[in-house]
Write a structure and sequence with these properties.
By secondary structure, the protein is mostly helical. The protein has four helices and four strands. The chain has helices at 24-42, 51-58, 62-70, 100-127, and strands at 3-6, 13-16, 84-85, 92-93. The strands form two sheets. It has a two-stranded antiparallel ribbon.
C-alpha cells in the first residue's frame, strides 16, 4: 500500500510502496552503489569477500550492503561470506529475520508460556468446588 512519508536518507517527501523505501534521488544513488558493489563482487578473486572488505574496497556503507543482501539482490550461494544481521541479536544470518539461536530461544519461551497457560487452566478446574446435595 502506498504511503506518503519522508525519505530516511534525505528527509524529502515521497510515496513509499512495497518496492521502494527511499525517494527517487536516493534510489538512484543506491542503485549506483549497488552497481559498484556488484562490479566488485563479480571479480572471481572477490567472491569470498566479507562485508568489511566490501565496505573498505567500495566505500559503500555496511548498512546498505546489508540492505542489498536482505532484499536478495545478491545470490548468497555465489557469495558465501555475505549475510545480514539478525533482527534480535545482530549476528550475521543468510535467511529469515532471526538467527537459529534466537529462534530456538523464542520457541522455548513460547513452550514455557503454553505450559503455564495449561497449568493455570488445570488449577482453575481443580479449584472449582463441586457441590453435592442429598435429595430425599
Amino acid at each position: 500500500m502506498a504511503e506518503l512519508t519522508n525519505c530516511p536518507t534525505c528527509d524529502s517527501i515521497f510515496v513509499k510502496n512495497a518496492f521502494r523505501d527511499v525517494c527517487e534521488k536516493c534510489f538512484k544513488e543506491e542503485e549506483k552503489q549497488y552497481d559498484t558493489v556488484y562490479a566488485f563482487l563479480r571479480k572471481r578473486e572477490n567472491r569470498a569477500a566479507t562485508i568489511p572488505t566490501i565496505v573498505a574496497q567500495t566505500g559503500v556503507s555496511e548498512d546498505l550492503v546489508h540492505k542489498f543482501v536482505r532484499k536478495g539482490r545478491f545470490n548468497i550461494a555465489n557469495f558465501p561470506n555475505l549475510g545480514y544481521p539478525c533482527d534480535k541479536c545482530g549476528s550475521i544470518i543468510k535467511q529469515g529475520k532471526i538467527c537459529e539461536n534466537c529462534s530456538s530461544t523464542l520457541r522455548a519461551d513460547l513452550k514455557t508460556f503454553q505450559n503455564e497457560q495449561k497449568r493455570a487452566i488445570e488449577i482453575r478446574e481443580k479449584e472449582k468446588a463441586t457441590y453435592y446435595s442429598n435429595k430425599d
